[in-house]
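I have been asked to look over a protein record a colleague put together. Alongside the sequence sits a line of tokens, each denoting a local backbone shape. Please read both lines and tell me whether the tokens look consistent with the sequence. I do not need a full report, just your reasoning and any doubts. I have pasted the whole thing underneath without changing anything.
>
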Amino acid sequence: MQKHISYIIHRFANTDHEVNVFMPEVDQHTPESAHISFFGPDTAANIRFTFIPNPKPGKFPGQYIWWSWQYARNITLALQEFIPGLDVIYSKGFCAWHYLLHRPVKSVPVISQLHGLEMYQKSWSFSEWLKKMILRLPASAILRKSDYMFSYGGKVKEIALRLGVRHDRIFTQYGAADRNFLYPSPDPKPNNLPRQFLYVARFEFRKGYHVMISALKNLNPADYHLTIVGDVPEENKLLQANILYTGNLPAETILKHMEKAEVLLLPSLSEGFPTILVEAMARGLSPIATDVGAVADIVDHTVGWLIPAGDITALRDAMHAAITCPSQTLQSQQKLCVDRVHAKFNWENTFPELVSHLQFITHDYRNRTTG
């Protein structure tokens, strides 16, 4: 979510639109230092940052929901002085929860983006199901009260429709790869054995690390090398000579690992729009990815392998297929990956669509409410 909105803010800086960005208060941060963090020595006079006080975190069950409500309330208070001059409010996650329930001004449309709507995706344990039930409290209120919704498409849009969001109120808004991943175009991969796999994710259950580890135990270590980017506890590591654990890395270093890799592993149990997927495809990696969130809008059999979530056998078989795939066939897939990202999932295309959606929403809402 943070990466997606950061890309959007950077691109708004090169337009004539005036953008007010409401973001959490960070120690020793000022609006001026936020400009420097985002834009370096350049200035963006049309971007204004407002810091929202962070509620103190609690230590009780459901504290995240309590924190989200308090933070959303602080946003409502800060918004009041801006509302008369706004054309549209674009909210991420639960940020508009309080505002939508109180709605001090109804002349400004609110478009919400709940990203993957993961609280409505399949649960894989009782504890996960319980957490998702709790998260549906703010999510359902936001879906009911928002005037419009941004969706990543795929199964995310299907969930929204199933929950009763009107088709004409849903706008598909894909994520995209930044130009640092697009240019220069990657050199063709050698695709020699052992096959070079890459996995990049936070260490959390829904990212499917445990599924991947189970699948690896049924493969010959001599056939592949796997680089795992992300902090994995020592007790959860599979200690094999062909597996490299790097810990968390900055984007520039991850890009270097992409240059060496041939196939991306994305075994997630739930997702929205995984940016790492299009970033890796832009660098010529053919993906093995699960059919969750918007992934099916990105991956099909022409560019990689789309498999059911949580299926260890399907993941093992897809990895075996990638290992035994002829070099020329894999190279064709990888080229199609690069072409697909350039055609559909780059910010040069995606950002103008976003602006067009926001402009349409502004005029459509005015026509519907005031004529």
